[in-house]
Protein 1
Amino acid sequence: MSKETDKLKHIAIIMDGNGRWAKKRGLPRTVGHKKGAETVKEICKAAEKTGLEYLTLYAFSTENWKRSQEEVDSLMDLLRQYLQSDLKELQDRGVKIRFIGERSMLPADIVEKMENLEAATKDNEKMTLCIALSYGSRQEILHAARRLSELAVRGDIAPSDIDEKLFSDMLYTKDIPDPDILIRTSGEQRISNYLLWQLAYTEFFFTETLWPDFNEKQLLEIIDSYKTRERRYGKIEAE
Ligand code: FPP
């Protein structure tokens, strides 16, 4: 049985399989992403209903910039639409929006929309929806290491001040608790440069379901299964 300290607060998801979903139907990959964006809405609502505090979604990785210009443009268009319309709905429901990732690589109009949304929802107290956009975990860790080196060189901190807390505070996910659950859809079993530091003690769940077909029922099944897992964080269970 899970203990109170293991209260489920945070689920992180790698939303994989949009392209294969479309291919199976003889449709362009972009249609798969569009259907995937609808699943994003359904899963957010389902997560809110469970009382979850944080939901982090991998929407676009730093590696995704290497896809065809057509696919990148269509993903950016989808995001634009989402930021404009759907996220307003989330704001009305009291959801707080946060973005993690390398903003300087994103189109300026998208960054502006992201900043507006973060500002507009910052005092909301329901679930925090964290969207990883142009996100790469190794880049995030390097960025933290550079910032800490700068502080040390300036004499603001001593190298011995660098502990897990200070390091975590330099990451994009500052103040967000580590995920309890990681879900990856589509049968792939990789982390793909996602939250490498933050997933240290996370429980992993892999499903064959392609992201556009993932639904509330499957999310709730994973949550139930999580509750039967015993988390030890490297310790031995007390007798
Ligand atoms: C992986 O499928 C998915 C992505 C690279 C993008 C995820 C984006 C969405 C779900 C839609 C937009 C998001 C928001 C927040 C509105 P893939 O293309 O790698 O699929 P494949 O492995 O089958 O080719």
Protein 2
Amino acid sequence: MVNAKRIKSFHDIPPSEGPVVYWMSRDQRLNDNWALLYAQDKALALRQPLEVVFVLEPSFLGATWRQYYFMLEGLKELELSLQAKNISFQLILGGTAGLRDFLCKRKAGFLITDFDPLRFKQQRLKTVLNSVKIFTHCVDAHNIVPCWEASEKLEFGAYTIRPKIHRKLDQFLEKFPRIKKHPFGKAGKPVDWKKAENSLTIDRSVTPIKNFPPGESSALKILNAFLSKRLPAYHDSRNDPCLDGQSGLSPYLHFGQISAQRVAFEAQASDARQASKDAFLEELIVRRELSDNFCFYNPNYDHVEGFPAWAKKTLEEHRRDRREFVYSPDQFEQAQTHDPLWNACQTEMLKSGKMHGYMRMYWAKKILEWSSSPETALSIAIDLNDRYELDGRDPNGYAGIAWAIGGVHDRAWGERAVFGKIRYMNDNGCRRKFDTAAYIAQNL
Ligand code: FAD
Ligand code: FO1
């Protein structure tokens, strides 16, 4: 049984005869997926087939071939693992209208989808609910403590959401049952992946990244390597971009190819020292869920209007400050600033598809410093992040950039030019923390 608090219900009408459809989007995996488990529970109780559908958008918030390739390869693996469980998997190419047609044609009786706080995804769900009268449930299969259970409002920072999450963690850190071989219906026709690829209207010049093999089974291998080799030293190494100290899981978490709850279980059970486990679980649970809270309760999560009042005021007061350097979006993109450290971060992102977490802060803050306005800086940072990072267009990205440029989840610091009271960072600070010359040499 799936915890009822993970579920939100729409359309107060009873399920009707017909297959149970799981509209998968954010949680692209077979295992440890509360939305899929819930859909199977319902299909078994109603003695109906279970059908998984994925609405493939021809373009999605600036994503390029780099991210689509990663996603499609993961979905190909998923199609096979669902088939082995006698669950059909369909890719829908006609957007939400295509989904509506599918639901009508299949005479679906119950629609289940996974939760996503992003505006585009919330809007897409509304469009479907307005166009088909079908019993619909939305399951938060991404967060450990469901977003609406963690908090009912926009939180100020990690310090306000942390106690709320910790209070409920035991309640939601439940063991996952396994998906069973489904006894009703049949696996269905194989997906035409070539047709799917050809339907995309994206920029293909940003190419896939070899170092991140896509899919659920690769995600597990990366998790296991992290647990045995890097988690023990995580507390000391995670903030040094010259060391390979982070988990490398963000692309897999972003596409839901691994569950954060599984990662948390395995990290808790590992024999790494407690300080490292605590530091990692703080990022994985508290910081990640804080980002979902930010996007869910603040529809302006990618606009300056979404910054806290004190930050908007101070940025306004410094709007006309003289900038020593002002770069165009192209100069930023091509890593052509005067600062080798910044150019190294940008190059790391262009080439590896994943900038080190510590450098992301420096990278975004310098975009604020060297742009003509906070609005321009925010838009450049989001565009570059979403174009090149494998984990881009994620609540973590919107929250991280809004933290760096707009003081979200932070407090006021000493006042200075351009930044006002927004926390400042410079290369001297970086030099005190790690070997910046080595990082530059690694990436330029
Ligand atoms: P690990 O250190 O191994 O952490 C494990 C997981 O914890 C991460 O995968 C992530 O889910 C979560 N996590 C870690 N740090 C944070 C954080 N600061 N905030 C929220 N969750 C966190 N993260 C993205 O997933 N996508 C983005 O597009 C993104 N853009 C960012 C932009 C800026 C300007 C900043 C400051 C941060 C951004 N982050 C983003 C957050 C963070 O830098 C990455 O999640 C992390 O570096 C991913 O690497 P990892 O999985 O190896 O991290
Ligand atoms: N979700 C979908 O339901 N359909 C898509 O076609 C799709 C494309 C896509 C491309 C890049 C990317 O980074 C994410 C994409 N997602 C898509 C959504 C993703 O699964 C996440 O749900 C959100 O980006 C973050 O919550």
